[in-house]
Amino acid sequence: MEKGGEELMAWLLFGILIVLFFINVPIAVALGLASMIVLMIQDNVPLMVIVQKMFTSTDSFTLMAVPFFILAGKLMEVGGISKRLVDFAMTIVGRMHGGLAMVSVVTCMFFAAISGSGAATTAAVGAIMIPAMVQKGYDKSFSTAIQAAGGTIGVMIPPSVPMILFGVIAGASISDLFIAGIIPGIFVGLSLILVAYFISRKRGYGKEEKSSVKEIFTSFNRAILAILMPVIILGGIYGGVFTPTEASVVAVVYGLIVGLFIYKEIKWKDLPEVFIQSAVTSAVIMFIISCASIFGFILTREQIPLSITNALLAISDNPIIVLIIINLILLIVGTFLETSAAIIIMAPILLPVTTAVGIDPVHFGIIMVVNLAIGFITPPVGINLFVASNIANLRLEKIVRAIIPFLIILIIDIIIISFVPELSLFFLDK
Questions:
Q1: What pTM did the predictor assign?
Q2: From CA 334, how far away is CA 385, in angstroms rounded?
């Protein structure tokens, strides 16, 4: 197709998509419908392509890790893991100013290494920590905000569903993405703890009693099986024992054994509901992937990523300037788009740009995941805000003001992660 025709199709594709988003059409349906309309206009493309692309995009061994990690996270969520992680975190940082707020973040970091989901991390930890903080005199909006912010770490510390999606789309090593996410995830967690500490100290939120060595050992002993799970999963991946997909199955088996037979928090009658909820969540993600694959097919066919690459490089080929522009784009996109859809749409568009200026694909993957995670706490999509507000029974507008300090530190974090690639690539042989 001639250049003028390509530009027309690009404007038409994105124009229809924006209109569908504006009238609240579900993301997956909007992606598929916009793509179908554009393909119908192009007489030389049979509509059977839609079915073929939807099928082949999900016919992937690597993508099998997504439903299994979701199921593993759900098993750990209902299997008594979060309570044990909270107790252990309390013995570590509970004695400091704002101890419960710090416990909330530390527990999110532990749970992130199990669930791979921001919403699941917020729900599992928030159900325990938000009522506990309010009972101890913490402001309800602050308690809810710190939990929503802590939940963003759920997709930063591996295993991470968005990292798996980026690896599939970008052709990057998922194992490398997992290991690259460890330091940035911990870094973000520590920065949130720092903000929580200063706010708590300023407002006079008290500290808990100092834990004895015996209490620390006891809580660690109760939480050891939860802490061992990411060690086994990630250690197996990096040690070459199993692939990320096989690791997801191991995680499910581990979660079942621990929840059913050791902690005994999961009953046999609970399993159908756990499986159904996991299946529904997985189906939504896979449907988004399948519909977004058609969208991606049109992007590639019309050479839209190439056009965007040339346009951005015409502004500057300086990696610093390019990273600033890309970060701004991702922050805006993350505000309006669900993370999975944003990765599937934006990765093929932005990856050629970052590659052209010499940015490592794995590093860019971490930048994208952390950036889009900020969208978890920014309206109107902000899923962590909705989950936390539902737990706290608090109106969303009351949380938005309290979330601002955490939003600011997360933006500072993404700037540091973007311009200090060693944070992501330290453990990799680059």
A1: 0.84
A2: 14
